[in-house]
Amino acid sequence: MSDSRLLYLNENSRKFAGFNKENSPFVILGLPMDITSSYRPGSRFAPSAIREASQYIEFYSLRADEDMGEIGFNDAGDVVMHPSNVEENVKRIRSVASYFAEKGKILISIGGEHTVSIGTVLGTNADCVISFDAHLDLREEYMGYRYDHACVMRRLSEEGIKIMEIGNRAISREEIQYANSSGIRFITTNEVNIIGIREVAKRVINFTKECSRIYLSYDMDSIDPSYAPGVATPEPEGLSPTTILDTVKLFIDRRIVAFDVVEVSPSYDPSGITSVLGSKLILETSALIRSKLL
Ligand SMILES: [Mn+2]
Known about the structure:
Helix 6 runs parallel beside helix 7 and helix 7 (about 240-250) runs parallel beside helix 8 (about 275-294). The longest helix has 21 residues, at about 275-294. Strands 1-5-2-6-11-10-7-8-9 form a nine-stranded mixed β-sheet, sandwiched between helices. Strands 3-4 form a two-stranded antiparallel sheet. The protein is about 35% helix and about 20% strand. It has one domain (about 5-294): 3-Layer(aba) Sandwich (Arginase, Chain A), CATH 3.40.800. It is of the alpha/beta class. It binds manganese (II) ion. This is Agmatinase. One of its GO terms (biological process) is putrescine biosynthetic process from arginine, via agmatine. Pfam families: Arginase.
């Protein structure tokens, strides 16, 4: 691998679920950045914690009827991050992501704070994002900074990317106004519980009619803190992981080019259960994607 875009790729990580299969369509990339976390920092340690948890998962997905042990993952390692320059890191992430996207790989990135998704969405050339998140991340700026975990979807929307968000419950009025004026759709946690997953999936399918490259983002704080306590910004009244995965199963198709798991903060996850769930989301989602590739 001598492409100049890989200058900031450190291949020496532990490998996800023990896999390093170069020919797998799934590339794992660790994005250890947590510069803008406002409450409980430490998500830079999540790629390593989630890889650790992944050593003990089963490869067969009942939900997808797929055995991921058959094709495995190509764990490419971590992007090396600058300790304080968010924009520089987003550039590095974008560049590494574009390398794997051009090879036709499906990129699975492990954050890191949600800001890393700006790099992976742009790098994989996605035109639509479906994001599970307690927050909308639609702020123009957060405490003076435009490249911040609270502004991720706003920056992407400004790039012309179509955005739909699910599982939201910690929202500002400014964000609702921006969403309404810019065509961003969101389904709150409360609405998900009322309308049910079939209707949620129907709305996603409807929303993605014009999309050709779909990116899926799992901010772990979309999940209820009883299942995922170790996140940077916990928010009560969340979705269950089963609700999320069963919804994804209903709308997922071949147009998914990448997905991420972000915002796990291992220092606040003493039992390790949030990292176990992160690795399970990766396994189940890639199995669901694979079931559509064949
Ligand atoms: Mn969030």
